[in-house]
Automatic annotation (TrEMBL):
InterPro entries: HTH_LacI, LacI/GalR-like_sensor, Lambda_DNA-bd_dom_sf, Peripla_BP_I. Residues 315-340 are annotated as: Disordered. Keywords: DNA-binding, Transcription, Transcription regulation. SMART domains: HTH_LACI. One of its GO terms (molecular function) is DNA-binding transcription factor activity. It holds the Pfam family Peripla_BP_3. Residues 8-62 form the HTH lacI-type domain. This is Transcriptional regulator. It comes from Brachybacterium alimentarium. CDD domains: HTH_LacI, PBP1_LacI.
Length: 340
């Protein structure tokens, strides 16, 4: 049969590039041990033939599918979306495919979907566990396969590896910055309390307020949307406006900015505003939004690295973190820090 009329094989690649079948296998699986010129020749043949790996055949030989399962809630919010994208990118670079499955409210709290994902033959499962609704899916998946959860806090479940970004640290960075600008009163417009990120940010806020001796209060919770930030701010204008408002995320901060603009309250002169996430467009708000950036790409790599070590039964390199630090991005919605 002519190669053009069937799916090209590794043997076809070997014939086209003038090397052995074993050399093609090394280029695909251990490229660093193959001479650069040979690697280049094999990859050129792969491209010319349109060769792709037959994962089913590989699974029969190795009992591994090179398939990673990923569970999400399908949220369109910036944080979960960026985390999902980062994990997919890291998996592809490591030679794994990702089977993405969405857990909805109709899915029996995730138990049925988690079970179906196990039946797909995935080597391991990553769960973007942003809120309490994802915990049952984590529990189901962990019964028979390695699981790593991406979450803002420990899920207190035996055998579950958890990685995340230090949300409390991000909130503390916000309050430290506001204190250095001379702010003495801050209100935190909190996010939904069934979300781990929202709870951790509020805890960080409360810790930092106490540490710096500021007048602080929490309002809400909001629901991550601009509308909730807008409504919470209108209530603050009626009841007494603080010197700064720290919104639980950038979307709520957009609502805060809009409400202040409607009331002709100057930002940051009359009231400073800070968000969280450094979403696309935060720098183009008027004024540009001070916020907290999360290392999503690094988080995706870390989550995959932990899962691969679980699959291989190997130890992580010494010093490998489970929690990554965020970074405060200062823009024009807060006043300059004082030098004295």
């Amino acid at each position: 049969m002519d190669v053009s009329s069937r799916r090209p094989s590794m043997a076809d690649v070997a014939a086209r590039s003038g090397v052995s079948y074993q050399t093609v296998s090394r280029v695909l699986n251990e490229p660093d041990i193959v001479k650069p010129a040979t690697r280049s020749r094999v990859r050129e043949a792969i491209s010319e033939l349109g060769y792709t790996r037959n994962r089913a055949a590989r699974a029969l030989k190795t009992t591994r599918s090179s398939l990673i399962g990923m569970l999400t809630d399908g949220s369109a919010l910036f944080g979960p979306t960026e985390t999902t994208t980062a994990i997919e990118s890291a998996a592809r670079r490591a030679g794994y495919s990702v089977l993405l499955t969405t857990v909805g409210a109709e899915d029996g709290a995730g138990r049925e979907v988690g079970g179906e994902l196990l039946g797909s033959g995935a080597d391991g499962i990553l769960v973007v566990a942003a809120h309490e609704g994802m915990v049952p899916a984590v529990s189901t998946a962990a019964r028979s396969t390695p699981v790593v959860a991406v979450a803002a806090r420990s899920l207190q479940m035996q055998g579950i590896e958890v990685v995340g970004v230090d949300q409390r640290l991000g909130a503390r960075q916000v309050i430290e910055h506001l204190a250095r600008t001379g702010v003495r009163s801050v209100v935190h417009a909190a996010g939904p309390q069934d979300w781990f990120d929202a709870r951790s940010r509020q805890e960080g806020f409360e810790e930092a307020i106490a540490l710096h001796g500021l007048d602080g209060a929490v309002v809400g919770p909001g629901d991550w949307t601009p509308r909730s930030g807008y409504e919470l701010t209108n209530a603050l204008v009626r009841d007494g406006l603080p010197e700064a408002i720290f919104a639980a995320n950038d979307m709520m901060a957009i609502g805060v900015l809009h409400a202040l603009h409607e009331h002709r309250i100057r930002v940051p002169e009359d009231c400073a505003v800070v968000g969280f996430d450094n979403t696309l467009g935060a720098e183009f708000q008027v004024p540009s939004l001070t916020t907290v950036a999360q290392p999503f790409a690094e988080l995706g790599r870390l989550a995959l690295e932990r899962l691969l070590h679980l699959l291989e039964g190997t130890e992580l390199p010494p010093g490998t973190p489970s929690t990554l630090p965020p970074r405060l991005v200062v823009r024009r919605s807060t006043r300059p820090e004082r030098t004295h």
